[in-house]
Amino acid sequence: MTSVTKLPTINGSGKPRLILLASLLGTLTVSACTSSTSIPSEIARIETEQGSAENIGSLTAVIRSNPNDPVAYNVRGSAFGKSGSYNDALRDFDKAIQLNPRYFEAYANRALIHRIKGDLAAAATDYNNALQINPRYDKAYVGRGELYRRAGRTNEAFNDFQKAIQLDTTDPRAYHRRGLIYQSRKQHDFALDDFATAISLAPNSPEPYNGRAISYIALGQIDNAFDAVNFAISLDDKNAESWANQALLWEQKGEIDKARKSYRRALQLNANFEPARNGLNRIGG
Known about the structure:
The protein has a domain at 39-134: Tetratricopeptide repeat domain (Serine Threonine Protein Phosphatase 5, Tetratricopeptide repeat), CATH 1.25.40. The chain is an all-alpha fold. It contains 14 helices and no strands. The radius of gyration is 20 Å and the shape is globular. Helix 3 runs antiparallel to helix 4 and helix 8 (172-184) runs antiparallel to helix 9. Helices cover 65% and strands 0% of the residues.
């Protein structure tokens, strides 16, 4: 199996970090993921719908009856991952791979858990292993691309998202993340197209709506930006990124009291959310 040079750690927790680069001067803002206070949304996309104790108990019963079935361990590992029991998830993925060393889905699932726990080198190695076994596995390209993006290796990230899209992926993350890269390159028309596709694939996710809002801000389309942010809030009113983006829009319109209220709401949801803290300091909190 191949390995890669260790990717730099993005932050101490290894969890997604939201980046807002906008100010009153109209500098572009770029959003990444959901608040670090919640279980990462990618967990919901790995093979099982439920991370409940009841479901895990049922899967455990299956394993007792089929102790050499790698699929059973992979599915239970996914359930553990969704529940936030990451060490248990890793043990199950390890067992699945031990039973079937060519189980590329288990490598990709284990990579996601490694990434959440902050072990980016192990995550990269697992994604590479998955792709060595199956070079057409779109989810592994999406996962590895996100590692590259977080490490600032945007060209490599773009290439991985592009490859997943060329493989006709239905994973909205590929389009959302590629859109963020287009956005960072100030190619906002391309970014908006990608956010629209991500929305069509995941209409209940606030993330691409926030991305869309930032590109609208950069294009001076403030009303469209408000519509996108407000819809993101209607989908999930506990997303700190959405409230901070709304605050930024109020700030740009000179509605300082409303901006202050939205920044404070963002900080209630995530007290460590730096863009909201900076915004509140800027306008006087």
